[in-house]
Each structure stands twice: as structure tokens, then as C-alpha cells.
From TrEMBL:
Residues 24-56 form the Ribbon-helix-helix protein CopG domain. Residues 1-23 are annotated as: Disordered. Residues 1-11 have a biased composition (Polar residues). InterPro entries: Arc_rbn_hlx_hlx, CopG. One of its GO terms (biological process) is regulation of DNA-templated transcription. Coiled coil: none annotated. It comes from Thauera aromatica K172. This is Ribbon-helix-helix protein CopG domain-containing protein. Pfam families: RHH_1. It comes from the Bacteria.
Length: 86
């Protein structure tokens, strides 16, 4: 595999996602509601639940700062490489 195509190990602004949460059971209508909310947000149910947990545990400001940092890295790289930036 080419190095340019290999993963960086940082595919998520949240860092490596290696820890697992316990599997839980919920009523069918709760699952349906989560699936619907995830679809409306343009995410899989797993992604949506991960975001909810992160927001609940760490708070909006911290999670937003992770995404802002990731965006700043991308914007900075675009400007350095002659990309169109802002």
C-alpha cells in the first residue's frame, strides 16, 4: 500500500476510537427515534450516539473545540499548499 493512501491514525477529530461501551437494550420506539434523529443529522446511529455521549460527558464547548482544531488544521494546510482557503 502506498504511504500516501495509508491512514494517519487520526481519522476522527475525537482521536482514536478504541474503547467500547456496553451494549444496551431499549424499546423499539426509542431505537426508531434514534435512527430517525441520526438520519436527519446525516449520520449513522452509531455516529449520532457517539456525538451524544461526547457532548454529555465533555460538554459542547470542548467537543466544538475539537472540531474547530481539526478544521483549522485543514484550512491551514489548504493555504500553505496554495489552496483557495477563505
Amino acid at each position: 500500500m502506498s504511504l500516501s493512501l495509508s491512514r494517519s491514525g487520526h481519522t476522527s477529530p475525537l482521536g482514536k476510537l478504541t474503547a467500547e461501551l456496553p451494549k444496551i437494550r431499549v424499546p423499539e420506539d426509542t431505537k426508531d427515534g434514534l435512527d430517525r434523529a441520526a438520519r436527519n443529522a446525516g449520520m449513522s446511529t452509531s455516529e449520532y450516539l457517539r456525538e451524544l455521549v461526547m457532548l454529555h460527558v465533555h460538554g459542547h464547548e470542548y467537543v466544538a473545540s475539537l472540531y474547530a482544531h481539526r478544521l483549522a488544521l485543514v484550512a491551514g494546510a489548504g493555504k500553505e499548499s496554495g489552496g483557495q482557503g477563505e
